[in-house]
Amino acid sequence: MRSELLEKLVSMHMPFGKYEGRLLADLPGHYLGWFAREGFPRGELGTLLALMYELDHNNLRGLLDPLRRPS
After folding, report:
1. pTM for this structure?
2. How many domains does the chain have?
3. pLDDT attached to residue 1
4. Which of 21, 25, 46, 54 is disulfide-compatible with 40, CB 3.0–4.6 A?
5. 3-class SS at 13?
């Protein structure tokens, strides 16, 4: 796994849909599961959503906490 992908999860926003504007790392598990069932988008966004799905599914979201920028 490339660390720059993890960093993008906490900095890139969802560009469309019900959760448009939300950080990829903050997307709810049921939404990520829907993509897993229906198909992830092509390209980098799909790769990032698939990675976030795996982190969520395996209860590893906490790995992203040290990468988050302080608010």
Report:
1. 0.93
2. 1
3. 64
4. 46
5. strand
